[in-house]
């Protein structure tokens, strides 16, 4: 059982997180250096973890210098570079930044413990070398051979070189999570030890054991060779866990198959790569380039390196899985349609995705790591309440202060493996568009009720109004009094006609129109509309028209479309002073889709320029309802034609712009009087 000591006085942050990450180990939390020194002198600790934020490096440096090599892991505020690490005491194996504690601490601790195990085995190896002489590896070809040979005493300088290679490779295990660099450094280390020309590393995958890296191997073999999990070579290495030399003599079919497989791999010796008692890979080497035999020490060192390579491969694989999982989670969070904010147990903001930034207008890079009170109210209060009490908000609506932005919120509590609270999170969406849609829906419902009421009132008034109009005419015909006749013409008749016109508009606005669509030439429709306008135009105003010199057809109910144009002109007349000119033009825009444009332009109306959107809304001026209904009725008719009505104001010229989709066009002779081409 591995025993670890943790020196830190930050209970809620470091101690809690370290224990959570290293749950498989026994971790002793200590707050004072004296406690650590006392524990270290009485209990065989496997590893020391020191928080350099709560205990500065300068205050523990003397203690670190007294320790064995590679027994300490430091927790730092920021990630240290290679040069800073080289300045640390030899007892420091590696460092982990506070920000990457959850991702890297477990991997670093695993490697440190593996390194200690490697050091212990290396010391045992040296002790065995002092008690017995080393020897050559025979080439007798037996599958389960004993490695005994005549005595041989390697050169002391070569021993030193082997040790240096081992140390350099061990450092490489802690320096990078790059699998390619690890393989390259491993194979260079083997070349320094045994001077071989061909090597290959096979790793286990879903199909079997395939070549992941090699030196000198046939390219086709390297790309296509896969050893099945029940192949003779794999089965033997998995069963025995021993070094295997290529058989020379054949005692059974297993030896024959092993030789065939090793011939394919162009190797003479195969090493098992064992991790947690399971074969995860195979390392193969061919004969030395000098044709010298392998020595026992060389093979034992390579065997040890293979097992530590196996551990490093698994660590790197675990690291990349964690990294990919982290990136996957990060991408999901960043691409969510909802805003997401989370806090940790220190009440610091740990997650603030892009959607949250867009909704709240806060830069995520500036607020992550800040106190939750930096969040606009009441988001911080909800997060704190959820974390402390476990109160989860479901489909809850709040308004953000001071903007009043409406949000729909769901909150949740974050728990660790022991179901203890470690933070809280909220998911929220902007309800602004939803609220506007609801308001529009309520307005539409109210407007529908008003329309029904206006329709009923119009029908109820029209019947007695017809009777009044008829009897008034009879009275006027029976009594030839000039004064009575003048009163009828100037007052009664005009009032009745005005009221009748208003009823027509109320009916048109409140009821559903029945359209009789036909293919119509837009210029012909505009000519008829112009004739109607000219007949009712007061002498105080001028009206002109300019029609496009090409024939364009639209789907139209001619009668209703003429009425819509007429009502727009009546609205313009009501809004302009005496002497004003109204100009009607038609033109085409050949886009996708192509449309015909009808423009009614005039000058000098400030109301149109300042409140053009309100002109499309009815019932703004009850005192002059007959005039106020003109534009909404026109808009309703145009919309029923699948057209659009836009209101524009530019440099004192105001325009109603109507657009309809073109269904057909053809050339027409140019009219000098009326026609012009609108680009």
Question: Could you write a compact summary of the structure shown?
Answer:
With 679 residues, this protein is α+β, with helices and mostly antiparallel strands.
Describe the structure.
The structure is a single chain. The protein has 679 residues and is α+β, with helices and mostly antiparallel strands. The protein folds into 5 domains: 1-130, 3-Layer(aba) Sandwich (Rossmann fold), CATH 3.40.50; 133-334, GAF domain (Beta-Lactamase); 336-425, Beta-Lactamase (2-Layer Sandwich), CATH 3.30.450; 435-510, Orthogonal Bundle (Helix Hairpins), CATH 1.10.287; 518-676, Heat Shock Protein 90 (2-Layer Sandwich). Helix content is 47%, strand content 23%. The chain has 21 helices and 27 strands. A 6-stranded antiparallel beta sheet has the order 10-9-8-13-12-11, with helices on both faces. Strands 24-25-23-22-20-27 form a 6-stranded mixed beta sheet, covered by helices on one side. A hairpin with a 5-residue loop joins strand 17 and strand 18. Helix 6 (156-175) packs antiparallel against helix 7. The longest helix is centred in the C-terminal third of the chain and has 47 residues, at 432-478. It is elongated and about 140 Å long. Mean pLDDT is 80; it is low at 131-157 and 670-679.
Tally of helical runs = 21
Number of strands: 27
- Architecture of the largest domain in CATH? 2-Layer Sandwich
Overall mean pLDDT:
80
Percent in helix: 40-55%
Distance between the termini: 87 Å
Shape: elongated
CATH topology of the largest domain: Beta-Lactamase
Q: Within the largest sheet, what's the order of strands?
A: 10-9-8-13-12-11
What is the CATH C-level name of the largest domain? Alpha Beta
Q: Provide the structure class.
A: alpha+beta
What is Rg? 45 Å
Which percent band covers the strand fraction? 15-25%
CATH H-level homologous superfamily name of the largest domain: GAF domain
Parts with pLDDT < 50 across at least 5 consecutive residues: 131-157, 670-679
Largest sheet: 6 strands, antiparallel
Number of domains: 5
